[in-house]
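## Example pair
The file below holds two records. Each record gives the amino-acid sequence first, followed by its structure token line.
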Amino acid sequence: MFHSTAGVKLSVSLYLIFFACSQPVWGGIVQKTSCRQTLFYSLVVTMTGSLIAMSSFNLPLYLIGRTLEGAGMGTASPIGRTLFTDVFGRKELARRMGVISGCAAIMPAVAPIIGGYLMIYIDWRAIFGFFLLLCAAYFYFAFRWLPETRINSGDEGVVTTRKVIGTYISILRNTHIGDMSFRTPP
């Protein structure tokens, strides 16, 4: 793909950075809207990113797609947990979370095998097509069967996206944090 190992590594880094940084942003959005609505927004962002990555013809366009994928998938953990907590009772929640944790534990081993077969027998673009189809199926099933669990009706206690971004900026500007992180003990 675009004859660059560094480009592939950069795409993984961008995906993970935007995956991590988007979680609090999506948290702010879910406080203003609802879990179900935020899930749909994030799936649209993810599917758009997959479509861009799959149809990209150069590295910058591919990186944009991967960035959008990461930003969209940032809802997976926080929204997933919130929805499970709202939908299931205590016993059922423990059982379902066990299944989800088991699946999450084996996916790092299974995903490269599936991706490898798709890449060998079809093309690297098939990996993104497969992921796009999974997201579309998730969108359909969530739209069809997922109940609205939490509708927010007020701004009390709401953490806005602007506050989250402002906090990130203040952390990055704080020289003491960087100084403590990189200083060797005496």
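Second record, same layout:
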Amino acid sequence: MAAAGPDPVVFVHGWNSDGSAWRTMADRFRADGWPAERLDPWTYDTTQSNATTAAQLAEEIQRVLDRTGATKVDIVAHSMGSLSSRYYLKSLHGAAHVDAWVSLAGPNHGTTLAHWCGGASCVEMRPGSDFLLALNDGDETPGAPRYATWASPCDNVVNPQDSVALAGAVNTTTDCLDHSALRADQRVYEEVKTHLR
């Protein structure tokens, strides 16, 4: 029997980060009535392939569902976290377990900045990578989840800036915010909260 309450929110951070990056946003969700046990700022190894991370995300989401009694989660992803969570939705049957998906400054079609970092995950973030070609082949927003993206015109990490938007998603352009500021901006939070409800 599903427990009453909002969908649990699983936060998926970006490259070279960890779950603590979500402190401000998670605090706002708590202040707005989300129980702490339904907020999961997950941490993973950002050097590994996004496909590996997606498999680990599937396990994490199942743990959250088992713990809370919920039937679905919402995903809020920042930057590279958008790629592993999309892989989970598209290739690991994750769409059946997700109600709403959010991408904040996600390099959904790659970023040229990824040519300056190494490791599997960085190679996959490069425009035209095999990983991205497969991820974006066909329907970019598969299944029933409600997809939304937020992109800033002042993002100095995701280049080109139009990499963020997905066909079939609600795509929003923010005020002039830097790449990391999308996680902490009050207006972005309010818009994300509205999307999750």
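Notes on the second record: The mean pLDDT is 97. The first strand starts at residue 9 and ends at 12.
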